[in-house]
């Protein structure tokens, strides 16, 4: 009996040390059966930790990267977490504080700057620069002066200035900058032109021989944006000779392929 | 509705808001745009909030025709680095 008690206390200690959640075993029989448990729980817990880290893919990818991209990746992760929080909040109520609005806008990929003034001269001539920018779940290849229709953006009025900050790629005739996945110091400026409804889509459901027909109309809300400026890449005058341009284009893409 | 119309009027000084009494017709909103289009929304049996929503929609629109969009991206300069063809070698 004394021997058993000793064993019990030993096992209790061991379980308490290794996994604090576990209840101390009640009977001696249980102790005997659970004896191998500590040995099992350690690799289990280790495994779970390992899998937790391996879930965040940034960890493994950032090993070989330079420090700048690492920071960027971390930022992205943080924003993802924010986005999740926001979604949880938005489900509860429709009232948003300014911070929440900003966070939600950041999750979609834009930032509201305020109304466009008469004195602002944001519209410029065409520059031979393009950017691939992400808004929500859509990606657009834009350049200066383009207009794009996105899903309706919340918290912005007609005539507001926006910054689209999820820039995935920048390009000029001589240079290409590829983000992985986002270029942190690039920005695309845009102006809200219109909140409008798309053409009507008719949703028609029908079951054969069951006398079942349902018709429903839907008009998607869209926002029309006009791209005014692309920042983060040096711009040049438009060149007319084609050969040197092509040669220059060749190099950055090769580098990108090597990476 | 009348109070909301007043606030709507104050918020949008660039608009000219006129009320008219027409007998024998449903109540409606009519938007006249600068490109000489006009858009009419019937607001019969609607709550004031709905009417305000439709008024803001009229305000937010440019007055172009409702057409099915072929593409959501309109550009004058389709390619910066040159259109790819089968002859282009990298």
From TrEMBL, chain A:
GO biological process: translation
InterPro entries, alphabetized: bL21-like, bL21-like_sf, Ribosomal_bL21, Ribosomal_bL21_CS
Keywords: Ribonucleoprotein, Ribosomal protein, RNA-binding, rRNA-binding
Acidic residues compositional bias, start-end: 67-85
Renumbered residue ranges of the record's region Disordered: 63-95
Record-level GO cellular component terms: cytoplasm; ribonucleoprotein complex; ribosome
GO molecular function: rRNA binding; structural constituent of ribosome
Entry-linked HAMAP family: Ribosomal_bL21
Family: Belongs to the bacterial ribosomal protein bL21 family.
Protein name: Large ribosomal subunit protein bL21m
Phylogenetic placement of the source organism: Eukaryota, Viridiplantae, Streptophyta, Embryophyta, Tracheophyta
From TrEMBL, chain B:
One Pfam family hit: L51_S25_CI-B8
Keyword list, A-Z: Mitochondrion, Ribonucleoprotein, Ribosomal protein
MF (Gene Ontology): structural constituent of ribosome
Localization per Swiss-Prot or TrEMBL: Mitochondrion
Source taxon at top rank: Eukaryota
ATP-binding is among the record's keywords: no
Keyword field contains Protein transport: no
GO cellular component terms attached to this protein's record: mitochondrial large ribosomal subunit
Domain Ribosomal protein/NADH dehydrogenase as annotated: residue spans: 1-62
Primary localization class, coarse: mitochondrion
Any GO BP: mitochondrial translation
UniProt similarity note: Belongs to the mitochondrion-specific ribosomal protein mL43 family.
PANTHER family, A to Z: 39S RIBOSOMAL PROTEIN L43, LARGE RIBOSOMAL SUBUNIT PROTEIN ML43
Name recorded for this polypeptide: Large ribosomal subunit protein mL43
Species the sequence originates in: Gossypium lobatum
């Amino acid at each position: 009996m004394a021997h058993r008690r000793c064993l019990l206390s030993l096992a209790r200690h061991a379980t308490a040390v290794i996994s604090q959640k576990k209840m101390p075993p009640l009977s001696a029989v249980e102790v005997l059966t659970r004896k191998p448990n500590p040995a099992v729980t350690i690799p289990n817990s280790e495994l779970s930790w390992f899998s937790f880290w391996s879930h965040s893919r940034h960890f493994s990818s950032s090993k070989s990267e330079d420090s700048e991209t690492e920071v960027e990746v971390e930022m992205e992760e943080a924003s993802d977490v924010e986005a999740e929080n926001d979604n949880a909040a938005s489900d509860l109520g429709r009232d948003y504080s300014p911070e929440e609005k900003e966070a939600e806008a950041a999750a979609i990929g834009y930032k509201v700057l305020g109304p466009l003034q008469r004195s602002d001269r944001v519209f410029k001539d065409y520059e031979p620069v393009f950017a691939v920018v992400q808004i929500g779940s859509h990606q657009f290849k834009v350049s200066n002066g383009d207009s794009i229709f996105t899903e309706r953006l919340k918290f912005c009025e007609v005539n507001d200035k926006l910054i689209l900050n999820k820039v995935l790629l920048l390009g000029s005739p001589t240079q290409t900058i590829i983000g992985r996945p986002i270029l942190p110091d690039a920005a695309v400026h845009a102006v809200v032109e219109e909140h409008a409804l798309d053409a009507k889509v008719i949703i028609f459901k029908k079951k054969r021989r069951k006398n079942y027909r349902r018709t429903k109309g839907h008009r998607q809300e869209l926002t029309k944006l006009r791209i005014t400026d692309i920042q983060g890449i040096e711009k040049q005058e438009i060149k007319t000779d084609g050969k040197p341009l092509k040669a220059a284009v060749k190099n950055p893409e090769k580098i990108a392929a090597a990476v | 509705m009348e109070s909301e119309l007043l606030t709507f009027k104050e918020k949008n000084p660039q608009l000219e808001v006129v009320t008219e009494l027409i007998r024998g017709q449903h109540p409606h909103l009519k938007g006249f745009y600068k490109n000489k289009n006009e858009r009419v929304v019937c607001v019969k049996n609607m709550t004031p909030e709905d009417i305000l929503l439709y008024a803001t929609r009229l305000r937010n629109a440019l007055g172009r025709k409702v057409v099915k969009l072929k593409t959501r991206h309109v550009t004058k300069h389709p390619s910066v680095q040159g259109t790819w063809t089968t002859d282009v070698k990298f």
